[in-house]
Amino acid sequence: MPEATLKGLGVSRGRAAGPVVRMAAPPVLPAPRRVTDPGAETAAAAEALDALAADLGRRAAHATAEGAEILEALAMMAADPVLREQAEAHVRDDGLDAAHALDAAFTAHREALAALGGYLAERAADLDDLRSRAVAAALGVPMPGVPDPGHPFVLVAEDLSPADTAGLGPRVLALVTERGGPTSHTAILARGRGLPAVVACAGVLDVPDGTVIGVDGFTGEVTVGLTGEESDRVQESDRRERARLAASTGPGRTADGHPVRLLHNIGSAADLRPGAEGVGLFRTEFLFLDRRQPPSHEEQVAAYAEVFAGAGPVTVRTLDAGTDKPLPFLGLPPEPNPALGVRGLRVDRVLPGVLDAQLDAIAEAARATGADVRVMAPMVTTVREAADFARRVRERGLARAGVMVEVPAAALQADELLAEVDFLSVGTNDLAQYTFAADRQHPGLSDLLDPAQPALLRLVGMCAEAGLRAGKPVGVCGEAAGDPAVAPLLVGLGVSSLSMAPVCVPVVREALAALTLEECRERARVLSRPAPGCGP
Question: Which of 180, 298, 327, 473 has most Cβ atoms within 10 angstroms of its Cβ?
Answer without folding.
Answer: 180
